[in-house]
Design a protein that fits this description.
The chain has 686 residues and is of the alpha/beta class. The chain has three domains: 7-84, no CATH class; 100-399 and 664-684, 3-Layer(aba) Sandwich (Rossmann fold), CATH 3.40.50; 404-655, Rossmann fold (3-Layer(aba) Sandwich), CATH 3.40.50.2000. The protein starts with 6 loop residues before the first helix and ends in a 10-residue tail after the last helix. Bound molecules: pyridoxal-5'-phosphate.
């Protein structure tokens, strides 16, 4: 390590730390940037490269205290150690040529790279982080949106307004990869035009993520805008994005000289990668079409993420045909044969990415046990000859990357080596409570400084509710009994306070209505100043919330929450879940780790009846269980019963719902078998 003694040498030492997303899971590394200029760092959405580009050598030099230098050296040593240690993967004998290509339309690695919109992307980011830690050979492929996740603000009438700040690649931890692969896309007249792709590389420890975009000089104007906005534009643009991701992604991997043996499609958006792989096998390797399809299937893993229609995209087949007919021909397929791969039943009109992905993947999974069962039922039509429980869709329950989401205080208390989480059962109650209180104080201060929220009382039971304002998430359930809620908020002895955050899809007026209702309610005297809507929910706010509130509330309409991951982040921080038994919570819940909301609407109740019963159950559990446990205090002011629940939540759920467990499951149950079935075409590695 070069000696650091002035602004220039400090900058040179910080740049490599800022250029690798490993900094996102090492609290001390992030703090090195935060401490240089906390206000500016927050304004720059925690982007260390942007911060370094703004600070002068003098600014840097003035930060260079002996204490700062010591911390810097500690971070440098830690990063060096992490790169060097033996991983789970290398502990055993492994196939030499094993490599997974992991495709996703969004990746949420950090707030500073907003190319994600929610849980799907953050899961993909966490997957890469865990693969790096475990040493699993894996390469990520996604899109670089110039305008990613929108920023949310409320106007004077409390209506959500979206703003799309531009991502400037030069001020992000991305490197331009010098190559310009081409994808053919149909223009307005239906003519195929070669579109050149830009390729950016992000480093996540041992793993690389390649992000593709079309904003390349020489491309026609319409083509340059294809990857402009995350999930943006009309149907045709969406299809073009998916062709860039799938077809372009495979071409990028080949140009890099990579020969993945396993392809993992995280949701159907990348499914066109199968078409390009098929073309390679048929056109370049001379494999017959049906044999090639079989080889392709054997080496593909597909994860379906939601039973909600928006996540299972369908296209007008003519639109698809205009864009891919040429490719389909080169695969030796008739158009009708190809179109049939995207349908459940022969008489279906539309081309669905989920059926296409399922028909071309030998290995498929849902993201919780319950979601696995729901998916087998939902896609049963693809296997009409099989009983529902033999539909070949298994489940691997999601997880979260612990080091990204665990509070600094808990990491200090529990240590960062195994059995990290089990130590929660042994540490003194006062220490656990103190660690939680520090995280809570930090959250309350953070929302005042960054969101202009009113100061809240840290002694009051604080409920967090933060997620996309999609209809099925039912944010309005908690507000459906205003009088009962008002009584809880204003209670003199045992009050509650509520922090709400989340974005509505820009086109979802219903979702925006709910936000408006929450904010209006927060203003009323009945809310007693104890309901706060926090605008612009993103990863930094999420991290503070899941570490600092007392209860994490989730009220989805069962069974539409395929997994849910924010509750896992809360659980490992000892923030107790109070949730409908849907998604991951249906398998995680026991009375020793949190609270279950179980409405008594029958199986054939209408949605309105279900909402009614669930709202009733929600209030009953808050009043009858959550509040008494929280406010019951011993002589020392420590809530023993609550802390017992916190201990079990951390010790039991922390490891079970981590990405390390999840990625090991993918490796052992899906990746290794898929690797064994991979076509071995020597030409691929060239
Ligand atoms: C974890 C996370 C999500 C996903 O949470 P769900 O529980 O699946 O709704 C969405 N947005 C952000 C910013 C997150 O951190």
């Amino acid at each position: 390590m070069a000696e650091v003694h002035d602004g220039a040498t400090l900058r040179a030492a910080l740049l490599p730390i800022a250029s690798d997303f490993s900094f996102t899971w090492i609290g001390e590394a992030r703090a090195l940037f935060d401490d240089l200029n906390p206000r500016r760092f927050a304004e720059l959405h925690s982007n260390p490269i942007a911060l370094l580009s703004e600070l002068t050598y003098d600014d840097l030099e003035s930060a260079l205290t002996p204490e700062y230098l010591e911390r810097l050296e500690r971070v440098q040593r830690r990063l060096a150690r992490e790169r060097g240690y033996e991983t789970w993967w290398t502990e055993q004998e492994r196939p030499e040529d094993f490599l997974v290509a992991y495709f996703s339309a969004e990746f949420g690695l950090d707030e500073s790279l907003p190319v994600y919109s929610g849980g799907l992307g953050i899961l993909a980011g966490d997957h890469l982080k865990a693969a790096s830690e475990l040493g699993v050979p894996l390469v990520g492929v996604g899109l670089f949106y110039r305008r990613g996740y929108f920023r949310q603000r409320l106007d004077a009438a409390d209506r959500q307004v979206e703003r799309y700040p531009r991502n400037d690649a030069n001020r992000l931890p991305l490197e331009l990869v010098p190559m310009a692969p081409v994808v053919e896309l149909a223009d307005e007249s239906g003519e195929l035009v070669p579109v050149r792709l830009g390729v950016w590389r992000a480093r996540i420890g041992r793993v690389s993520l390649y992000l593709l975009d079309t904003k390349v000089s020489g491309n026609p104007a319409w083509a340059r805008d294809v990857t402009d906005i995350l999930y943006g534009g009309d149907r045709e643009n969406r299809l073009r994005q998916e062709l860039v991701l799938g077809v372009g992604g495979v071409r990028v991997l080949r140009r890099l000289g990579l020969a993945p043996t396993v392809f993992h499609m995280n949701e159907g958006h990348s499914a066109f990668l199968q078409l390009e792989r098929l073309r390679e096998l048929v056109e370049e390797d001379g494999v017959g079409t049906s044999e090639a399809l079989e080889q392709l299937r054997e080496s593909t893993v597909f994860t379906t993420h939601t039973p909600v229609p928006a996540g299972n995209e369908v296209f007008d087949p003519e639109l698809v045909q205009r864009n891919v007919e040429g490719l389909v021909e080169r695969c030796g397929l008739e158009w009708d044969e190809f179109a049939a791969l995207g349908k459940v039943a022969p008489e279906d009109e539309l081309f669905g990415l989920t059926p296409f992905a399922l028909r071309t993947s030998r290995y498929a999974n849902g993201v919780s046990e319950l979601h696995g069962a729901v998916s087998r039922e939902m896609w049963h039509g693809l296997w009409p000859g099989s009983p529902v429980d033999e539909v070949p869709i298994t489940s691997i329950t999601n997880g979260v990357h612990q080091r990204t989401w665990l509070s600094r205080e808990l990491e200090e208390l529990l240590g960062d080596t195994d059995p990290q989480f089990a130590r929660a059962r042994e540490v003194p109650a006062e220490s656990l409570w103190a660690a939680h209180r520090t995280a809570k104080d930090r959250l309350l201060e953070f929302i005042v400084t960054t969101r202009g929220a009113q100061a809240l009382d840290p002694d009051v039971l604080t409920i967090g509710f933060a997620r996309r304002f999609a209809t099925y998430k039912r944010a309005s359930l908690l507000f459906s009994r205003p009088e009962r809620l008002a009584a809880l908020l204003a209670d003199a002895e045992r009050p509650i306070q509520i922090l709400v955050a989340g974005k509505a899809h820009p086109a979802d007026e219903g979702g925006k209505d709910v936000i408006q209702q929450v904010v209006d309610f927060a203003r009323e005297p009945a809310a007693a100043g104890r309901v706060v809507f926090l605008s612009d929910y993103e990863m930094t706010l999420a991290r503070r919330l899941v570490q600092g509130v007392d209860v994490w509330l989730n009220t989805p309409r069962r069974p539409l929450e395929a997994s849910g991951t924010s509750g896992m982040k809360a659980a490992l921080n000892g923030v107790l879940n109070c949730s409908i038994l849907d998604g991951w919570w249906a398998e995680a819940y026991s009375p020793a780790v949190g609270f279950a909301i179980v409405g008594d609407a029958g199986a054939d109740a209408s949605e309105a009846e279900q909402d009614e019963a669930d709202a009733e159950a929600l209030f009953a559990i808050l009043e009858g269980q959550v509040l008494p446990a929280y406010y019951e205090r011993g002589a020392d002011g420590v809530p023993e019963r609550w802390i017992a629940l916190m201990r079990e939540s951390i010790a039991e759920l922390g490891p079970r719902f981590g990405t390390a467990r999840m990625v090991r499951d993918y490796v052992e149950r899906l990746y290794l078998p898929a690797h064994d079935g991979a076509p071995r075409a020597a030409s691929r590695a060239a």
